[in-house]
Amino acid sequence: MAAESLWPDPVPLALDTAPLPQYGSGSLADLLPTLAAGQGVPDLTATIGELTPADRNCVFLIDGLGWEQLTAHPDEAPFLTSLLATSRGSTGRPLTAGFPATTATSLASVGTGLPPAAHGLPGYTVRDPATGALMNQLRWKPWSDPHAWQPYPTVFSLADAAGVHTAQVSAPAFEHTPLTQIALSGGTFFGRLSGEDRMDLAAAQLAAGDRSLVYTYYSEVDGKGHRFGVDSDAWRGQLRYVDRLVQRLAEQLPPRSALYVTADHGMIDIPFDEESRIDFDEDWELRAGVALLGGEGRARHVYAVDGAAADVLTVWREVLGERFWVASRDEAVAAGWFGPPGAMDERVYDRIGDVVAAAHDDVVITASVQEPHESAMVGMHGSMTPVEQLVPLLEVRS
């Protein structure tokens, strides 16, 4: 027997083994269209069939509180835990975030009711085809015209135009950000610093109309998870706090209301060792032929120098293919990673990497020089694994 046959070449993960988001039936992009359609807003379709219409709907999005994190911490979240059986219309099942499972992408999906292939925020950082530079879609740097980048109306604006009382209640700093403009605008924005004030005002705004659509948001569960990990004392403390916030809001719901508690993604802690954290800036094989590295640690967009895309795909599959789903742009689009067949908007196509790598194992591709802050995070997210993809849709009705 030849010696080399004892160590066969690694077999890359088959792309059809990636657990696709439930676009069109059970993803974050389907939530607001379903609620607004039930309120009589025209040109929207209720695609989450398990949800019952309500005159007044409130969506409370808790950044970073994935389904698996919630179900693993019942003692810290007794009220939320008591609602688990109500998720997704009392089926007890979660929604999926969409790919990548990251805040900018998910908030755009929530607010527009469109998958990433259409709304055009397909990652944390992506290449702007007009400039060739990386665009951070959370911080909107470098600046680009928001409404050219994402031209579709938000569900909130459609609801407001249809006579639904529409409001967003969040931190004041978010009022004028480009992401708010293109994903969450429509009706009136109310900025409140404390979580308690947001809950009280959200309840008041629900009561302000015969038909109301209200959105509120809390970010620090995600913040503590990134910095300290999702099983840290700091993270647990935030979970206890947000559990009380949800209960506070639920106890103030006006008649004919439905409160939906959801999240933009889950999170996973990644060990600080060379096996779990592959540093792109120190890996000559992964860097070869790469012009730009986009996305984030668990969901990478890789932009090749001219003529090198096929070689980059080959190398990334050989090096990472047992631990990441590694696809060409066309393969990722055809597989439905960014949306269902036919959803890809022409303006979005070139924002996607020549190669897209989504983590399967507990591993990230860091970039210690280019991304020192992100590379130092404990908690990570972005890929299609259940711990990142699955988010609750807890329901309280009055």
Describe the structure.
By secondary structure, the chain is an alpha/beta fold. The protein contains 18 helices and 18 strands. It has a 6-stranded mixed β-sheet, with helices on both faces. Helix 10 (195-207) packs parallel to helix 12 and helix 11 (220-228) runs antiparallel to helix 12. The longest helix is centred in the middle third of the chain and has 18 residues, at 233-250. The mean pLDDT is 96.
Topology summary:
Layout: H1 31-38, E1 56-62, H2 67-71, H3 78-82, H4 87-90, E2 95-96, H5 103-112, H6 116-119, E3 125-127, E4 134-136, H7 146-149, H8 155-161, E5 165-170, H9 178-183, E6 188-191, H10 195-207, E7 212-218, H11 220-228, H12 233-250, E8 257-262, E9 268-269, E10 277-279, H13 284-287, E11 290-296, E12 299-304, H14 309-320, E13 324-328, H15 329-335, H16 346-349, E14 355-359, E15 364-366, H17 372-375, E16 379-380, H18 386-389, E17 390-391, E18 394-397
Parallel strand pairs: 1-7, 1-8, 5-6, 5-7, 10-15
Antiparallel strand pairs: 2-17, 3-4, 8-18, 9-16, 11-12, 12-14, 13-14
Helix pairs in contact: 10-12, 11-12
Summarize the structure.
Helices cover 32% and strands 19% of the residues. By secondary structure, it is of the alpha/beta class.
Instruction: Give helix % range.
Output: 25-40%
Rg computed from alpha carbons, rounded to a whole number of angstroms: 21 Å
- The secondary-structure class comes to alpha/beta
Shape: globular
Distance between the termini: 72 Å
Tell me, rounded to a whole number, the average pLDDT.
96
Largest β sheet strand count, sense and barrel closure:
6 strands, mixed
**Spatial order of the strands forming the largest sheet:** 6-5-7-1-8-18
Say how many strands there are.
18
